[in-house]
Amino acid sequence: MDIVIDTEGDEPLFAQLMEQIKQAVSTGQVQAGDALPSIRQLATDLELNNKTVAKAYSLLERDAVIQSKGYRGSFVHPDAKANCRVDRSSVVTEALTTTINDLRHSGATDSEIRIAFGNVMNSQKA
Amino acid sequence: MSQIILYYLIFVSQIFVISHYYPNKVLKRMRFITTSYPPTDYPKLYPHACCPEGAKRGSERSIKRYRSLNLMAIFVGAALLGFAAMQGYVPDGKSDMVVLVSFTMVQFIPMFYLEISEFKSFKKMRQNNKASTRTAGLKPRRLFDYISPVVGGVAGLLVIAALWLNMHFNAYDLEDSLPTIAAIVGVHLYFAGVVWYMMHGKKMNPHQDNKDREMHIEGIVKMATFTSIMISLFLLATELIRFYSLDAWETVSLSIYFQLLAVFGLGTMLNTYKVEDTNFEVYRADIAKV
Questions:
Q1: Whole-number Å distance between alpha carbons of B245 and B77
Q2: Are residues B263 and B17 in contact, defined by beta-carbon separation less than 8 angstroms?
Q3: Is residue B130 less than 8 Å (CB to CB) from chain A?
Q4: pTM of the shown model
Q5: Which of these, A71, A119, B152, B191, is most buried using a 10 Å CB contact count?
Q6: CB contact set of B227 (below 8 Å; sequence gap of 6+)
Q7: Cβ distance of B201 and A44 shorter than 8 Å
Q8: Which residue in B133, B140, B202 is closest to A37 by CB distance?
Q9: Rounded CA gap, A48 and A55, in Å?
């Protein structure tokens, strides 16, 4: 199984990486418990920054598609196949769409929603 | 008398193995590549060329140079052999050692030439590579995926055995053993560095298919391991020859060692990294990357 990254593609590099690892899991090209290359190996082979690969790995770990076992490296999660079907971005989009529709119905303007969204995000970050 | 005949036979065998047998295999491989994968269809395989005609001329020139360097080595070997036979030279394990080592260096010149050419080609390929897509395998690279732990263990044990025997025959005097220990440790650090770079370093050939890269790494790891085993066995044999004062046999053992290096080094590499199994489609100009 080869990972192919397009550095001039519209999608961010870490997202391309995540998507392809999930694809490899769902098509059975990598199985639960299989070892994955180290962050350094993948970053060197794809000529990417270590941080880009680390970000993809940490998001995949959050989604329980992979699991880190310390110095032994990263492995495919036992429930990876089921977990990689969960599309977090569509869940977020769906929740936001419902909230925005509710706010519009209550009379809030788009600029008020944008400002409030920005403020909430900034306060959460701090 | 039989020892002299054996000496000459081993020397002829060295000329044949290092300058004729394996170079012919390499030449066959080079010709197969240039005829099966011409520059018109596989331009990325000829990074130095400005046009298909230039690429063809360049590869013919490389083949001719490699063949000429090997022919030169055969000529030097035959001249040395003829001169020694005419003079009725009897090997004494001293001056013939110097001649043998110097001649072997001449025999390895074509291999160095090929290595340097390959490095230059890969460098040019990297400079020419403007593709925005990059590929990588989804399998971790671990040493024992490429070599059996048993063979690796045997190589390690032989190094320890050879160094122990050397120290034992030098009555555990570190000053006497230090040059040998330093040389062995140095060579193994070099091998470790090469293997590490191949496994974890930057991709040398930007177009190389991931499967081919795995095959290449396996070839390098096997070559380094078998060479290490040969070095240890040679050291063990040399220590025994010196201990039993069989100096005249030292040259014969050295020649056998060089030949085994070629068989287990270059031979293993050629058998592991087969040209028939290599994916040359990646060198096409209009390759559609999936």
A1: 28
A2: yes
A3: no
A4: 0.80
A5: B191
A6: B191, B261, B264, B265
A7: yes
A8: B140
A9: 12
Instruction: Report the C-alpha gap between B19 and B258 in whole angstroms.
Output: 12
Say what the ipTM of the complex is. 0.75
* Contact in structure between B66 and B19 (CB atoms under 8 Å): no
Radius of gyration of chain A (CA): 18
Asked if B44 and B125 count as a contact pair (C-beta separation under 8 A), the reply is yes
pLDDT of residue A126: 54
Beta-carbon count within 10 A of B50 CB:
9
Residue B124 has pLDDT above 60, yes or no: yes
Contact A46 B134 (CB under 8 A): yes
pLDDT in the model for residue B1: 63
- In sequence order, the β-bridge partners of residue B233 are none
Contacting residues of B for A73, CB less than 8 Å apart = 140
Partner-chain contact A37 B138, CB within 8 Å: yes
Which candidate in B138, B204, B216, B287 is best for mutational testing of the A interface (most A CBs within 10 A)? B138
Q: Which two tokens stand for residue B6?
A: 């054996």
pLDDT per residue over A31-67, tens digit each? 999 999 999 999 999 999 999 999 999 999 998 999 9
Interface test with B, best of A45, A50, A60 (most B CBs within 10 A): A45
pLDDT in tens, B176-232: 788 888 989 999 999 999 999 999 998 888 888 888 999 999 999 999 999 999 999
Q: Do A2 and B133 touch (CB under 8 A)?
A: no
Which A residues in the span 43-72 are in contact with B, Cβ-Cβ below 8 Å? 44-48
